[in-house]
């Protein structure tokens, strides 16, 4: 059995693990509902999720790839739902509205471009470049935590289950992109996979607690 014959199973594994990762937002929103407030939390992760899923959804439509369309349809609906819950319980409603307005304007610009672009190949390339750029920004976000973990020599601040799930998601999408010869999918997910492995390696190198982290907590307290 060659790798190409595994394309469909890998695609379905990628879809399932990604949707499971999306569903983790339910736990966050549940806490907002229980506390009746979002406190100082930022809506940016949900807003960024709407933007990323929306652009990947448009890319999937342009490329006529039902796998990308399906997973990002689910992601888009969930991220919009999470943003709505956040808006209900936040005291920073004006900030959320500004972010949502920016997203709507951006999508209107994209839809306007899509409606006038006659060359589908150019459309796929440009949407793919935009979508993969958003993914790269997302997977690069944990870099600041990596430097902090190395500095304090403790992995206490790293969420092991989420990192492990990110590894599976990135690995499955990388394999799917490689088989499908789609650099826009394979490229950022290869980087995401490497970063997830780097974070997991820190759990082996450093314990979850250390003198440095305890000292840091004491200083904050």
From TrEMBL:
Membrane topology: Multi-pass membrane protein
Transmembrane segments: 12-29, 41-62, 68-89, 96-115, 127-148, 160-179, 185-206
Sorted UniProt keywords: Cell membrane, Golgi apparatus, Membrane, Repeat, Sugar transport, Transmembrane, Transmembrane helix, Transport
Subcellular location: Cell membrane; Golgi apparatus membrane
Highest taxon in the source lineage: Eukaryota
Regions annotated as coiled coil: none
GO cellular component, one term: plasma membrane
Primary localization: membrane
Molecular function GO labels: sugar transmembrane transporter activity
Family to which this protein belongs: Belongs to the SWEET sugar transporter family.
UniProt function note: Mediates sugar transport across membranes.
Protein name, as recorded: Sugar transporter SWEET
Species in which this protein is naturally found: Papilio xuthus (Asian swallowtail butterfly)
């Amino acid at each position: 059995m060659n790798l190409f014959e595994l394309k469909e199973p890998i695609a379905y594994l990628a879809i399932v693990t990604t949707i499971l990762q999306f569903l983790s937002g339910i736990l966050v929103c549940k806490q907002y509902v229980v506390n009746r407030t979002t406190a100082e939390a930022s809506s940016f992760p949900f807003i960024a999720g709407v933007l990323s899923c929306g652009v990947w959804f448009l890319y999937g439509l342009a490329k006529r790839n039902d796998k990308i369309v399906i997973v990002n349809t689910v992601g888009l609906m969930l991220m919009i739902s999470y943003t709505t819950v956040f808006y209900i319980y936040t005291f920073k409603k004006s900030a959320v509205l500004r972010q949502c307005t920016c997203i709507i304007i951006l999508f209107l610009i994209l839809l306007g471009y899509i409606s006038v672009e006659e060359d589908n190949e150019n459309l796929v390339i440009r949407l793919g470049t935009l979508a993969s750029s958003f993914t790269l920004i997302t997977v690069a976000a944990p870099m600041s935590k990596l430097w902090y973990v190395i500095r304090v020599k403790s992995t206490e601040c790293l969420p092991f289950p989420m990192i492990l799930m990110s590894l599976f998601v990135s690995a499955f999408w990388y394999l799917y992109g490689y088989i499908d010869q789609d650099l826009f999918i394979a490229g950022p997910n290869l980087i995401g996979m490497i970063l997830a492995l780097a974070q997991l390696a820190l759990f082996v190198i450093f314990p979850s607690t250390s003198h440095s982290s305890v000292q840091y907590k004491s200083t904050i307290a």
